[in-house]
UniProtKB/TrEMBL annotation:
Domain Flagellar motor switch protein FliN-like C-terminal span(s) in chain numbering: 258-326
Family note: Belongs to the FliN/MopA/SpaO family.
PANTHER family according to UniProt: FLAGELLAR MOTOR SWITCH PROTEIN FLIM, SECRETION SYSTEM APPARATUS PROTEIN SSAQ
InterPro entries given in the database record: FliN-like_C (IPR001543), SepQ (IPR009532), SpoA-like_sf (IPR036429), T3SS_SpaO/YscQ/SpaO (IPR013385)
Gene3D superfamilies named among the record's database cross-references: SpoA-like
Domain of life: Bacteria
Biological process (GO), any one: bacterial-type flagellum-dependent swarming motility
Record protein name field: Type III secretion system protein
Lineage, opening ranks: Bacteria, Pseudomonadati, Pseudomonadota, Gammaproteobacteria, Enterobacterales
Organism annotation: Candidatus Regiella insecticola LSR1
């Protein structure tokens, strides 16, 4: 397995609690925290919180733009060390206003490549520039205690601008077809191979409707979704076997074991809200406003009912859900 390319969607229990706490975001003053996937080349600014050493990670582009906007030089190698430390202090002063226990180190920032992972991100603006600062290697229990006091954002900022969105459905990574016999044997720790796995690395997933067409969509950071494909035939989508033999139903009737009948487990990774009027005429290539939120784990649903949860792991070309909790009796 290529560990560098492994999609790090597996969350520790502490991170799951933090994800649930943050929800759609929490805001204190001019700083908003969210929980999302981050990766890329960047720099780590050394800090500490209540005596624990940790860091603030910024993308390479944001750090270079900050230096250039103030000093007219984007390359940190061309700047004096004391000046770089001063720029770090100035930048992080916005966070210190809402995190009074945050201490900024006098050490230099260091280059750091952040692998794709779930992260707590603080978004703020300084000198007309927006920053998305990852709280890197922070003590999670302390962070949970701090953010619990921050006001929670409204579930849908889009809905507050217009009218209630009115329509909600699941965001799905894929699904798994199992017989009733196989369902009865499932337990915590088992892995479920995901069929029709969405390209999550490129922000694609399935928009799942019970009893309706399934939409393959791409989500953007600007609260928009673009429809990539529409499937009108759910049986074809799920690769179900159907009896198409000519003749009357009684002529083709044969014995079927109840335990052999298959059910569909849907791997739900989040929810999406949109205006009800936008549902009326969806077409491939169409881009619509929406609000999406990710759970930070996988909700396993059977006929619309959640029966378990787990984490996504990529094993070579396969996407697998490892069951963490299982409630089906």
């Amino acid at each position: 397995m290529n560990w560098r390319s492994l999609m790090q969607l597996t969350l520790s229990p502490e991170l799951k609690e933090l994800s649930a706490l943050i929800g759609n975001g929490r805001t204190q003053g001019a700083v908003t925290t969210t929980f999302k996937m981050m990766e890329g080349k960047g720099v780590c600014l050394p800090v500490s919180i209540e005596g624990v050493n940790c860091g603030i990670w910024l993308s390479e582009q944001e750090w270079a733009s900050w230096l250039e906007s103030v000093l007219a030089v984007s390359d940190p190698n061309c700047l004096n060390n004391d000046l770089l430390v001063g720029m770090s202090h100035w930048l992080l002063s916005s966070l210190q206003h809402v995190l009074p226990l945050l201490v900024v180190s006098n050490q230099l920032s260091r280059p750091y490549d952040l692998l794709k992972q779930w992260a707590v991100v603080c978004t703020f603006t300084l000198e007309n520039q927006q920053f998305n600062a990852v709280l890197f290697d922070w003590p999670l229990m302390k962070l949970h205690k701090i953010l619990a006091d921050w006001p929670s954002d409204q579930p849908s900022s889009l809905g507050s601008k217009s009218q209630s969105l009115g329509y909600q459905c699941g965001l799905v990574a894929g699904w798994c077809r199992l017989s009733l016999t196989q369902l009865r044997t499932l337990k915590v720790g088992d892995g479920l191979r995901v069929c029709a796995a969405a390209d999550l690395e490129n922000n694609c997933c399935w928009l799942w409707q019970l009893g309706g067409p399934q939409f393959y969509i791409r989500l953007s950071e600007e609260n928009q979704m673009t429809i990539q494909n529409i499937n009108q035939d759910i049986d074809e989508l799920l690769h179900l076997d159907t009896d198409t033999t000519a003749g009357s139903a009684m002529e083709n009737l044969h014995s079927v074991s109840l335990d052999a009948l298959e059910k569909t487990l849907v791997m739900e990774i989040g929810r999406l809200d949109m205006k009800i009027e936008d549902i009326k005429a969806l077409s491939v290539g169409q881009t619509l406003a929406c609000e999406s939120s990710c759970y930070g784990e996988v909700g396993i649903r059977l006929d619309g009912q959640q029966v378990g949860s787990g984490n996504l792991v990529r094993c070579g070309e396969e996407l697998v859900v490892r069951i963490d909790r299982w409630a089906l009796k």
